Amino acid sequence: MLDVGRGDAASLRPMFRARALFLAPLALAGCTVGPDYRPAAPAELGVPDGWSVPATQAEVADLTRWWRRFDDPLLGELVEQAAAANTDVAQAVARLRQARESLVQSRASLLPTLSGSTGYQRNENVVGGGRSFTLPDGTVVDTGGGGRNAYTVGLSARYQLGLFGEVRRTVEATRAQYEASGFDYAATLLTVESETARNYVLARLYQAELANARASLALQDDNLEIAGFRVQAGLVSSLDNEQARGQRAQTAATIPALAQQYNAAVSRLGVLTGQAPGAVKGRMEAVRPIPGGSAAIGVGLPADLLRRRPDVRAAERNLAAATAQIGVDKAALYPALAISGNLNTNATSIGSIGEAITGSLFAGLTQAIFNGGQLRSRVRSSEAAADAALAAYRGTVLNALEDVEVAVVALNTAREREREFAVALDAANNAAILSRSQYRSGLTDFTTLSQQEAALFNARNSEASARSDAATALVTLFAALGGGWDADVTPEAPRAGTTLSTTGNP
User: Fold this and answer.
1) What are phi and psi of 114, to 5 degrees?
2) Does residue 274 fall inside a structural domain?
3) How far apart, in whole angstroms, are the C-alpha atoms of residue 423 and residue 407?
4) Does 500 fall in a domain?
5) Is the Cβ–Cβ distance between 316 and 394 less than 8 Å?
6) Which of 4, 65, 109, 231 has the fewest Cβ atoms within 10 Å of its own Cβ atom?
7) Is residue 170, in this structure, part of any structural domain at all?
8) Residue 319 is part of a domain; what is its CATH number?
9) How far apart are CA 95 and CA 426, in angstroms?
10) What is the pLDDT of residue 22?
11) 467 contact partners, CB below 8 Å, separation of at least 6
């Protein structure tokens, strides 16, 4: 036990005071300035309790792979291929990886930095000492009595202590930005998936319209032949023949335009799946019906979108990052403490390294005194950025609500139109059959036949268009509800040699 006398105790008081002064800033290290982020409640964001349009508020089913609800294997293959190979998705993944590395770098600021050095030096005496050597010109040079080795080893450390939480706030902001990048990736993924499905539906619509045009063209070829026979027989004037010829030409003229539209949709599918424009033309060549999809969809409550929509969650994380940045800028108004130290050793031989070690420790406290108001301006700027992020967050939420309501109405309208056009198609088909039979029998003129077949042509296209609109509206609704990714998982940047996925297992 150490016995300290009165004189000794008095001599130790300055050392205790110095330690107290040194440890005082450390006690302040737990102080973090700036506002603490708090997620806004749905009511603060303008989210209503229910929808303003007729919608089934039943719980939303699992829409992670909503394309399987269309029962079209090729559609599913193309959507999943686009999710894996699309170039926009690849860019989003790269940005997510960059954000992860920014977080790693930011976290490193919480730890001290260490660096080491080592060196070797050889000193020779070139005068005296008895050693000599002969230069090429014959001159003898005395090297002295020997030389001296010098070995040095050093270790230095530096630690930036965030007295007022600037380092922790920086990590907080960077983490929020990384999470926002993950949700941005998911939003890009959803856009690519829905765009692929829409173009697939369009391609099937153009196939249906091409088939309709070719079928009508075949009938009009038959009508033109009949009209020609009737003109030759003197039963009708050449007016019927000219009307038949003109109607056929008009129908034939629609085929190249439809073929061009079909080619554009299929080419777009190739690019969306990360391939050349013509890569999927062979797979799409076989004519298939326009996919129908689910009969009823539960859309849940408006507040559910805050969790399901990745763009909404990205906007929320951007707000969190902007809020943390206020703390970073406010901390710059207060003192900053940096601690550094080093250890060094010098030896004349490797074996004696460590026998004599010297070291130093330095703690430096800095405080901004005058900067023309620059630091306070930065605080006001970051507060304005946080206000903008809040407005962007509210705007994203309101847009998400709008997307759902518009898609619900579009789907209901398209399905109602589809039902009515089915009735119209049946009536137009029956009327065309009767008109064709009556014309062949001479009971009606060609104008009536032409009108009825034009009506049938339009009814077929209208019915196909309504089916396409219903399928497209359903795809839009799935995307508006946040389908196409696993909402229970925050996307993480992929490790080397792995593929990022937010849609779960197949």
Assistant:
1) -120, 140
2) yes
3) 25
4) no
5) no
6) 4
7) yes
8) 1.20.1600.10
9) 54
10) 42
11) 205, 290, 292, 418
Q: Rounded to whole angstroms, what are the CA distances from 46 to 43, 71, 303, 352, 393? A: 5, 37, 10, 74, 11
Closest to 384 (Cα-Cα) out of 424, 333, 329, 334: 329
What's the CA gap between 347 and 355, in Å, rounded?
8
Total structural domains in the chain? 1
The string of pLDDT tens digits covering residues 386-429 is: 999 999 999 999 999 999 999 999 999 999 999 999 999 999 99
Residue 10: partners with Cβ closer than 8 Å, 6 or more residues away: none
**Going along 356-415, which residue ranges are E strands?**
357-366
Coil, strand or helix: which one is 124?
strand
**Mean of the per-residue pLDDT values of the chain:** 85
Calculated CA dihedral for residues 64, 69, 70, 73, nearest 10 degrees: 70
- Residue 356 vs residues 200, 268, 347, 349: alpha-carbon distances, Å: 78, 74, 8, 12
CA distance 188 to 475: 15
Question: Is 18 a domain residue?
Answer: no
Assign 140 to helix, strand or coil: strand
Global pTM reads 0.82
Give the range of the structural domain holding residue 255, as residue numbers without chain letter.
24-114+164-334+373-480
Q: What is the largest CA-CA distance in the chain?
A: 142
Give CA–CA dist 259/266, Å, rounded: 11
